[in-house]
Specification:
The chain has 10 helices and no strands. By secondary structure, the chain is mainly alpha-helical. It has one domain.
Amino acid sequence: MQKRLTKWGMGFMVVSSMMVAVYSLRFAGAPFGHWGLIDQGIRDVITQVPVRALTHMLVAPLALLLGGLQFLPGLRARYPKVHRYVGRIYVASCVIAGVGALATVSHASGGPVAGLGFGILAVLWIGATLGGWWAAVRRQFELHRLLMRLSYAMTFSAVTLRLQIPIGFMLGYASYSAMSVWLAYTSWIPNVVAVGVYSVLEQAKKRRLTNSQNLRGIVLSQA
């Protein structure tokens, strides 16, 4: 049952990240005056700081797409070099998109409260991603896995944010910009908490397994 849930969860993560990444391609038309499906508040941000805003909006989808693929166990096991090269592109994409986001927060369509939330996200996103890369370079793979999970939890906020937008409309908000005051926090904090809880439970399970194996070894040695 647990393996099935994990498989379904992984499938949802990969498919939803691909869908959102493709949907984000609409921002590529903004420099040419094509604004279809772009919220007016977001349009105003792009108009004010086009390079900073579009750097984030066009590079972040690459991180979203590649990051999900990095969690596929078959890729890591069978093609470790591909995993490493894709990982480097993911790190570069996160850092570039994060810097673009951080440089744009003062113009957030939801105002300073939304800007603060997205600013905190950008700083933590860059920090976790670079920390995960550095841990891999130093071959600290347990730390690498934890930090990259946290990194992708924040990257995946692009998906959870869009899943929460219909809730905002049901609550009576007229636009994305209006609801971004709370989306700037709810889009990523639950993801980070979920990764934290999962990692704690995973470590507890490993300790129980290790203790059980050690106890079995002692029993067998005394038999």
